[in-house]
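Aim 2, interim progress: modelling of the arginine-bound target.
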Amino acid sequence: LIAKTDAAGGPQLHPEALAFTSSLELDRALLKEDLVGSMAHVVMLGRQRILEPKDARAVRDGLGQLWLSAQAGTWAPAGEEDVHMAVEAALDARLGAVAGLLHTARSRNDQVALDLRLFTRAQCADALKGLAQLVSRLLEMAQEHADTMLPSYTHRQRAQPISLAYWLCAYAAMFSRDMKAFDFALDGADALPLGVGAIAGTSLPIDRDVTRELLQFSRLTENGLDTVGDRDFALDFLYAAARCAVHVSRLCTDLIDFASSEFGFVRLSDAIACGSSMMPQKRNPDLFELLRGKSGPAVGDLMSLLVTLKGLPGGYNRDLQEDRRVVLSAGPALCANLRALLLGLGNVQFDKERCLAALEGGATQATDVAEALVGLGVPFREAYQAVGTLVAKAQKEGLPLSTVPLEMARAIHPGFTAQVWGTLDPRGSVGRKVNEGGTGPASIARQMETLRQSARLAQTRAEGVPSLEGLFKRLSEVGI
Ligand code: ARG
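Predicted structure of the complex, ligand included:
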């Protein structure tokens, strides 16, 4: 049963209305954020002499006791409309009247914004760490596979030869952009909302900068009316998470295809290959399919909050409580996905021979042959046409381009010399892509260096985010 505090509504409030409007089931996950936020607030009230320092200390210590009891499993927020009221009620039960001082110069509107910002800040740090680990793993694999060649695909048709390192770096580049997106979301969350009260600030002589420093935010939010209704930091976070999940899903689709017998580029180890309840021969890529599937809820979470916000008037509106479901679940879901992807990547084995055979079996070198003709002075369109004719002829005779006799080519264009024919080797094809952004080894080396650097940066940035445990420890001891 939920207690009827005045904050929830008057005595006439119907119990079902109270139950319906409660957020405790979800926001008890914000207990630690709520407690450190309250500790910082009451320390500030004491330092500003808005409260007697001894009262402020008593409340701060009482909040500290709640933290420890929650950790020991001897207390959990319950019996109130939300986590904020549950904390205040528990404090009242332990301390008596002095607990009533805690909410001085504060509203649940700025309080919940604080809890969510603290939560989002930590989630961004976790995402950054997970991504740094993933990019590092992709780079390790790229190092191992500098010489593994495979076809690239456009329209899911074989296109041009690339190295496997290039394919791996492509996904690492996507995840490195995701790091930037989380970095942006982290920056958005990194402003202290506390002190704006319900909407318009307070006439009591608070010092928001003291609270800001205690909770290690970089800045203050600038307008209370904006602050209490602002969930943009959460949107940015959900966007980063959704986009990252979409990148994961694309990588997984490549792996799912590569693991099929049609491609045969990849073998799944027993540790991740799933079976079928009926077909004994199956080695299914369920882990990668599920990772792809989980991009659905990730995109849904972003849509959910966007639609919740759409059309709200300025200031706080209770609709905002619907942010909880998605904001609380998106980060942990993303981190679980990144861990599963790491596990998956550690359990795929690339079949170098099959990859190479796929290159040599078709006509993926056609563009290289045309470019070799261009190198001899043949205009590109003419070269394109000549190679096109040659490929069509080879296909009709069932010959892979690499096995077409030189004479047959010469009959189509005199430019087909032994030198031009040398470009049919896929390794040479990859090696000749020397410019930036190409699949050549020098370009790969540059890409890997940039990626390595962004992984390092993300890791450092994440480590700079204060932990709730660290804040708690400091707030338990600071002088008032
Ligand atoms: N449970 C509410 C929430 O999570 C707390 C804020 C309520 N504010 C109010 N004015 N009713 O959004």
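Residues 23, 27, 82, 108-109, 112, 316, 318, 320-321 surround arginine (CB under 6 Å). Residues 108-144 form the longest helix (37 residues).
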